[in-house]
Amino acid sequence: xxxxxxxxxxxxxxxxxxxxxxxxxxxxxxxxxxxxxxxxxxxxxxxxxxxxxxxxxxxxxxxxxxxxxxxxxxxxxxxxxxxxxxxxxxxxxxxxxxxxxx
Length: 102
What we know:
The chain is mainly beta and 102 residues long. The chain has one domain (3-101): At1g16640 B3 domain, CATH 2.40.330. It has helices at residues 16-22, 67-72, and strands at residues 3-8, 11-14, 28-34, 37-43, 51-52, 54-55, 62-65, 80-88, 93-96. The chain has a nine-stranded antiparallel sheet. The radius of gyration is 12 Å and the shape is globular. The relative contact order is 0.30.
């Protein structure tokens, strides 16, 4: 499945379809940079930490507020970046390819 995510104002926005397919029932994620890609890893045990996956609207889209993470990676608050995604089975993570290339 190829779909997309958006980063804007220090937040990562995931459409309902992406959440349902890769993160159903997950309440938190870890964000990591891998070269030019963003890795989004599910956290199965919420007390372990990570960023909360908050419900954004009645449709079921999700948002991860992580301004300090994105700023530390050189993504300004006023930028909007769209990226295609794919599941990396070896890393057990969702990859937003080239997100940090912009």
